[in-house]
Amino acid sequence: MKPAARWEKAKRGKARPGGLLTTTPLDLIILYVIAHKPSLTDVRNSAQAGVAQMNDTSEKEAPDVNRQLAQRLRDARSERGWSLDRTAQETGVSKAMLGQIERGKSSPTVATLWKIATGFRCSLSSFLAPPPASGPAIFRNADAVRARPASDPMLVAPLFPFEPRVGFEWLELTLAPGYTRESEPHAPGVVEHIVVIENSMEVLIEGEWHRLQAGDAVRFAADRPHGYRNSSDEPALCHNLIHYPAMHGQDISPAGA
């Protein structure tokens, strides 16, 4: 599929063959990918009109995705025997918001989902993707696991969801033009490895922004404040391998997912 066609398809929120996620407010969780360079016209049109259009589409498809996330959150609480009060205390997300998510009435942003995952000491992808496939070789197509968010200008595609035996998850991220997100510390020992695939972006490490060009890579401790920024006029594409050493060998995904 040509880049321009893929971009338009992402904006319309149509499901992709074999897709694990479609455009819905869970897109508010996911934001991400354009494995091509859209023209500046595409980018500007998307920034101005895409959000409203995607909101209209996502509202129609939200129930299924909201139910999926709601079930995973309930499973995670049930496995640990946590009340909503305990979950709010561990995650830093309000009891009211957690209740709305469990009832399928609200879709968390990426930042909120990270808080929930960190509080449960599990991976981000455990809430975004089905259990990872198994076998001597696993092939993945980013187009099949990519979704565009309704408002959070970042796309997230879980290329390889977290597996206890390897201790990491591999995400493809697409940062929209002008996107900035400063993340709170993840669980102790978590390390992120970022490789810029297309265009450029900046990473906040130890209070300082570092610019990375396509082909550059960085590894940093993600159990400290950090962030991502795209100050350019075009989407930035990167791969992010997140290693959870404290979880290596443990099944920390909700309901074994």
UniProtKB/TrEMBL annotation:
Q: By its UniProt entry, which Pfam families does this protein fall under?
A: Cupin_2, HTH_3
Q: Which PANTHER family did the record assign?
A: HTH-TYPE TRANSCRIPTIONAL REGULATOR, HTH-TYPE TRANSCRIPTIONAL REGULATOR SUTR
Identify the CDD domains for this entry. Answer: cupin_XRE_C, HTH_XRE
- What PROSITE patterns does its record include? HTH_CROC1
This one is known as XRE family transcriptional regulator
Q: Which GO terms describe its molecular function?
A: DNA binding; DNA-binding transcription factor activity
The UniProt entry's GO CC annotations, sorted and at most eight, read:
cytosol
Keyword Hydrolase on entry: no
Native source species: Candidatus Dactylopiibacterium carminicum
Q: Where is the HTH cro/C1-type domain?
A: 73-127
Keywords in alphabetical order: DNA-binding, Transcription, Transcription regulation
